[in-house]
Design brief:
The complex is a heterodimer of chains A (119) and B (113). By secondary structure, chain A is mostly beta strands. In chain A, 0% of the residues lie in helices and 50% in strands. Classes of the chains: A mainly beta (119), B mainly beta (113).
Chain lengths: 119, 113
């Protein structure tokens, strides 16, 4: 069974630009969640998508958005990039039980991530 | 105060010893907890989850939860050099306006051969 696929692996952008990241979940998984990982803040939850709808959301500004397609593939968009957006962006796929990522036994399978550098 | 706190380490233990990784959380509404292992340059992978007070064992790993003290721990018995990684504790809040999954910043474990 193929794992979670994230593209691209690396991205370099300049301030003010926008960026779109892609995530293909494990076959049969309906939930995709996104995370930002930085050395100082660790792993932070951005949002979760299930059945093409945003189900849960973390505490990030509206510049961070996402969507999910009917085949469960998901994209994350960051507009008006800032230097502080430089981070590793991870997506995770899961079956998507009630409660989503916060469900008691919801197992997340992470992709390899996209390393975004904002200059 | 961060919602989920971990000592960043590094925690150094000799091979064969018991490694004890600790995590505290501030939100009493947190209902379940997860331990993820992340090797350098790799993605996190789930080790265990726990939602009831007490101990939960899986092979060399034991997760402990004490909701009264708001404390979660992970014990690794017979530590091996291959266990050297960053261990992330995550707390899940379920049932409010939005469900949240909050990660600690991780503890770096180094097992010395």
């Amino acid at each position: 069974k193929a794992g979670v696929t994230q593209t691209p692996r690396y991205l370099i952008k300049t301030r003010g630009q926008q960026v779109t990241l892609s995530c293909s979940p494990i076959s049969g998984h309906r939930s995709v969640s996104w995370y930002q990982q930085t050395p100082g803040q660790g792993l932070q939850f951005l949002f979760e998508y299930f059945s093409e709808t945003q189900r849960n959301k973390g505490n990030f500004p509206g510049r961070f958005s996402g969507r999910q397609f009917s085949n469960s593939r998901s994209e994350m968009n960051v507009s008006t990039l800032e230097l502080g957006d430089s981070a590793l962006y991870l997506c995770a796929s899961s079956l998507g039980g009630q409660g989503g990522v916060a469900a008691t036994n919801e197992k997340l399978f992470f992709g390899s991530g996209t390393q975004l550098s904002v200059l | 105060q961060k919602e989920v706190e971990q000592n960043s380490g590094p925690l150094s233990v000799p091979e064969g010893a018991i490694a004890s990784l600790n995590c505290t959380y501030s939100d009493r509404g947190s209902q379940s907890f997860f331990w993820y292992r992340q090797y350098s340059g790799k993605s996190p992978e789930l080790i265990m989850f726990i939602y009831s007070n007490g101990d939960k064992e899986d092979g060399r790993f034991t997760a402990q939860l004490n909701k009264a003290s708001q404390y979660v721990s992970l014990l690794i018995r017979d530590s091996q050099p291959s266990d050297s990684a960053t261990y992330l504790c995550a707390g899940a809040l379920y049932g409010g306006a939005t469900n949240k999954l909050i990660f600690g910043t991780g503890t770096l474990l180094a097992v010395q051969p």
